[in-house]
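Example record used in the benchmark description.
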Amino acid sequence: MDLSTNVEVDEERSLARVCLVGALNTDTAPGFESRLQDVIDRGYAVTVLDLKDLDYISSAGLRVIFKAAKEVKSSGNRLAAANRKPHIEKVFEILKALPDMAVFANDEEMDEYLDSMQSQAKGE
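Model output (C-alpha cells):
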C-alpha cells in the first residue's frame, strides 16, 4: 500500500497539518521522513500529524515520527498526532512511547489545546 501526504499550513497560528493517507511502512517511511523534515525545517510552532486516513503503521513509520518529535522538541516547537483510528492508537499504546508528543482524540480537542497554548503565549 502506498502513502500520500498533504500539507496544510496556517501561518497565522504557526501550524502545519500533515495529512497521511495509506500505509506508513518500511517502503513509504523514507519518503515520508523527507516530506516531514521539509515541514519541520520551516519552524512551525506546532506540526500536527493527521492520522485520520492512515490505515497502517510499522516500526519504520514509528521511528520517523519519534525522531521528528525529538527534533521538534529540541527546537522548542511541538509535534502532535490527531484523529487516530483505534488500531493505530493501539500501536502507540503498546509502545507507550509518547511522553514528549501531544496526542489528540479529534480536531476539537486539538483546537482547544492550540487555543489554550496561544492564550498562554499572549499572557491571557
